[in-house]
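Q: I'm writing up a methods section and want to include an example of the input and output format. Could you take the sequence below and give the corresponding predicted structure tokens, formatted cleanly so I can copy it straight into the document?
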Amino acid sequence: MPVEKTERYVQTLVDQISRGEIKLPEIQRGYVWKPTQVAKLIESLYRGYPSGSLLCWRTLEEPATRDVAIAGDQANPAVQPLFLLDGQQRLTSLHRVLSDHPDAQIVFNVETEAFQNQSAATAKDPRWIKVHDVVRPDAKLYRLISTTQAAVPGFDPDLIGERLGRLAAIRNRAFHMEILTEFPYEEIAQIFVRVNSGRPLKTSDLALATLSARWTGVLKKLEDEAAYWAQKHYQDLDVTFLTRALTGTVLGRGLSTWSHGRLVAATDEELEKGWAAVQRGLRHLVPLLRENLKVGNSNLIPSHVALLPLIVLLGERPDTGLDAETANGIIYWFLLASIRNRYSGSTDTRLGQDIPAARGPEPVKQLLANLGVRGAHFEVTAQDLVGRTVGSPYFFLSFLVAKNAGAQDWWYATEISATAEAGQKLEYHHIHPQATLKNHQNGYSKTEINDLANLAFISGKANRKISDRSPSDYFVDPKPPLLTESELAAHFVPYQESLRHADAYRDFLDARRNLLARAMTGLLDRFRPPWMDETEATSDPLAGCSVEFVLYQSSWDTGQIVVNAKGDGFGWTGSFSFADLESVIQAADGGLDSDLEIAGVTMPVRVESDTVTIPIGPFLVSGTLDAWHKMLEREQVDAQPLSQCPVIAPQPWEGDSVSFPVTSIE
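A: Here is the clean output for your methods example:
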């Protein structure tokens, strides 16, 4: 077997990286570890825990490489380099710690033996010692022992010395290595994919690895294209997105576990043609969204996956003029696909329907048919907006209608802009401040307080100036300038004085929802193709539906999530363990299905590509891994004391379940 087995010390490996004797092939993803993960690695080495093996490749070829995420450049190697296939995150982290990288300032508590990233608090506490100060080759441990013992009187200096000595010894911890030889790049790419298929490596990372082996220099193409769009405030068109776009164009569907084999079989001509279509499609699509729809920044877009069929449509169409009807139809489909959460679940399946539709003879008609609205008039109602918050696609529409109405900032009197910077950078503002609504006698829920009908788009400076004052105060206060009826109307804020008080907050929400709904319907009608049937009407199937999570937690218990789900004619309350939810999302990171006990019943958790679907009461809650992680983080920030957690009797849901996006959970 062309495999060498050996062991090398941590310090040796770090030195080899510095000398350029260990490089990263282009198939590798970027460095992604956070300081907490780096701290855990150092702790594992300190405690003698297993830390995995390394996989490298030795070749006479000169494969394309990518930079290692260390300070400074690697030197030109004096010997034949090794190319690291598995272990990048660990070795890069170790190099950062041992070279005192500013983003890896890991510290060690000599008293508790805890590890973490440096903070203002640890910098002032003499019990916390920077790991680099201990592990660097010229470290003087006796000085550190003396300094620590003097700062912490009564602490045994022998124990300090024993612990610092054990920490310093991590330089001499050995990693087992396997070195592959005599393998061509194409096989190495397949080995890389297989090694990482069971790891928390996304399908887009694996697809990029396959593309890199098939098409030398593809990473540079993707990075250059991503940099081009980042300069134009479309920074979400990054390497990962472009990989999906290229793969979707070549394969005619979304990413899945079978994508890699199909990509290997793709010809150079197919890859070149696909990449040309992606570039051409984006150069037609982005101006259409930016100029016609006023989408000046990609971070406004609820689902970037919805761009993929349109990239294919515009990138592969004949080089003829784009008529207004087709342009409007493209925007109309994009808006409806966003509103109806077209890609919140079963993303690969939906793209497998929509990309071929985009290539058909009447692409806009077929795409709308896939949505089920080809012959319908879509109307946004006030009921559609009930329970919608910042994660809802209607939040995106609320910005668009305000932008198209010429809404201005309440401080600078400039039109609201998603690309504004510094003090004029756009924020969303609670018209009725949270401070006056929380604990109000009317019992406003978290979902009601954060309802999109209570949010307006203004500059950060205006937001800070208003602070937590009631609209009954700041609407009429000349400092900041008096808000006129027309200025409020452009934001679709009702002017009636009776709605400015917290007691009438629900009436305010009703009034503003009606204003926003009419404006949103008007915006849709502007782009609605004239050939669509006027007689049939349709609306959002999730109208009136809402899901609210409340996390109850303590310092000694990860706690419970209480779910309140509502819809037209039904309501359901249940609960489940927050720790169990974290576990299933962690398993999903590795591409694994799992189970979650909800309301006393074990429910299956499905993972498709990077989309996770969990049956929660009346809803199949779906979303990307990134969206689930953001939801977990948000709930931890808003956690309530565990002592306040209500007792919820298990009440399993026995009816049908409908899809609901995790981004719309409040």
